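[job 4471] stage=fold_predict status=RUNNING
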Amino acid sequence: MPEFAVPDPVALERLREVRGFVLDMDGTLVLGDRNNQGLNPLPGALDFVQTLVDLDLPFCILTNGTTRTPEQYADSLRHVGFPVTADRMLTPTSAAVELFVERGYRRVMVLGGKGITEPLEAAGVEALPPLRGTSVDAVMVGWFRQELTFDALEAAVFAVFDGAHFYSASQSLFFATAEGRSLGTSRAISAVVTDITGCAVTVVGKPSLEALQTAARRLGLAPSELAVVGDDPELEVPMAHRGGALAVAVHTGIGHAESFTDRAADVRPHLDLPDVGELARLLRG
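[job 4471] inference complete, writing structure tokens
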């Protein structure tokens, strides 16, 4: 790794103590197009996941995407060679379901597709389309690109004016694709709603602590026993620090070798690596 810093021995020692892994998807394991189709494994990614399996290290994959249900994401990863079952796959909706049930929400307006509506309905939460005049407990925004209309934005705004709480799958500016950075729809829609209404937005995907805690519960571990691996400096590393997990950054998506140069030590990754293939080598070594 001549162009990368030598891993800190303290971080390497902690890596050996990690009991489970939370992995990002786009930009860490795979890259697809801007519509999240045509996934291809990134260098070293198949070997890395197989290494986790061989070493009997539990893992889950936590994406901020909502274009599919967790089961459908798992299918798409298996199709390109990853040994991923549905129970290993999490999306922002996974955390939203737990949060909405806990808060007693019964009706939620969704600016998004089946990747949000199906898990909500399965949990007994009515998922309603963005139509003005609809009475709801909350508004949930996710992937909503071609379907987005001014009428949908207006419906979300007036639902918030009428007292609905506002939730976003992600507030990331961009996500990684094979074509470069693409604008995140959740952030764009949220910008309109929050600017007009003045409401707060609650993020249920990364880098929220709720998302990490959902992953930890899925693995049956405490957040502090986990390593979080990802490419986006604004997502995985901050989330890891919030939960006391080991933060591992890779440079195959949004982030690069200079991403953390000017950041305080307490928000830098514990391990900053070129790709997950190098992480596999460290685990085997």
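[job 4471] summary: The radius of gyration is 19 Å.
[job 4471] exit 0
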